[in-house]
Each structure stands twice: as structure tokens, then as C-alpha cells.
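Technical note accompanying the year-one report. For the benefit of new consortium partners, we illustrate the data format agreed upon in the data management plan: each record pairs a sequence with a C-alpha cell string. No post-processing was applied to the example shown here.
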Amino acid sequence: MTRLTAKDFPPEVLCLFDRYVHGDISRRGFLDRAATLAGSAAAAAGLLAALNPKFAEAQHRAR
């Protein structure tokens, strides 16, 4: 699977994710607003999954 970078996401989504990560909006707030930008709730959930760090995977790669 190809690793996505910030260039792969619209700036508006990155701004929303930054607000979510720093506690300015809730998970539901992120998903609601991202659904508006992405076109559906499923697409918004996919964005959240793609943006969330994968700590276990990163730890496995480091070994």
C-alpha cells in the first residue's frame, strides 16, 4: 500500500484534522465537516482512517 502524504489531501481537510487532533473539534465534528467536503460520511471516515497515525505499524517497521 502506498503511503499518503499531506500533498494527497485537500488543505481544508488537513486544517480540519489539525483542529480535531488539537481538541478544537470533536471526532463527530470532524466527520460532519469532512463529509461536506468529501461528499459522503463514508468518504469522511476514510479520510479520518487515512490521516490517523498507525503507531503499531510504525513501531513494527522500526524493528
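Partners are asked to follow this layout when depositing records. The radius of gyration is 13 Å.
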